[in-house]
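Possible regression after last week's pipeline update?

I re-ran a chain I had predicted before the update to compare outputs. Posting the input and the new output here so someone can diff against the archived version. Not blocking, just want to make sure nothing changed silently.
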Amino acid sequence: MRPAPDIGVERQTDSEPASSAFRFQVQPEFHEIPLGAGADETALDEQMVAFARDYWGGQEEREPLRALTAALYGVNSRHLVSEGAVFNAMGVFPVGGGEDGSKSAERVSRCTLLVSVQDLDNPDPVLAAAGIAETLARSKHGGHVLPVRLPAGPAVVHVAGTRMVWELADGEQERFSVRIEIWLPFPGEDRVLVMSLSTADVHDLYMYQAVLADIADTITFDDSGADRPEDPSVAPATAAAPTPNPFG
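New output (post-update):
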């Protein structure tokens, strides 16, 4: 995996002690979408305006698109935070072409990465992972469930597909998407870390399985005994990275 910035996340409220911070690395093809956690309305609005400008560019004729993007992503970010999200990003991955950059990519594949922290009765990570696997296997969403062992502890991989159908004048139109999840219980508290990578480019499933596996291998918890970066400049990520126009 190519070098990527460390991302540290620590959640805390006035009524409960801080939970264990955790860190992971993402490939540089991922571009963070502001969540606004801990920011007031004005600060989040400013972050979304900056994100929309990076997304669409600064051309004057694209101002309506920038305004719509900022508004839609702002509403979605507030909802995601209320559901426990701590990191959100879009991935723009070139596919094909020369690895040395001598040839242009044949196409671009896109995905989204969402990381959340959920409460969980977690007496023991091994038992918690086994319970998660059993619950996912019996859920109505179906899919494939596989218990795995990550450097940070026992986890569960869940892969599921979705089919969406629209009734149009000239017949049905369908779209498919696939979601890959990693459920990783915290080693010392009643919480679970959930990484979810979703894409409509279902033919790239194997590539994204490898992408998420590489990210999962970098997860460390404060109390896991894993080495933390010595660079004091590494801090929790809150601002969006510049994002190229995903439409090319």
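Follow-up from reviewer: compared with the archived run. The beta strands are 6-9, 22-25, 30-32, 85-95, 107-119, 144-150, 153-168, 171-185, 191-199, 220-221. Marking as no regression found.
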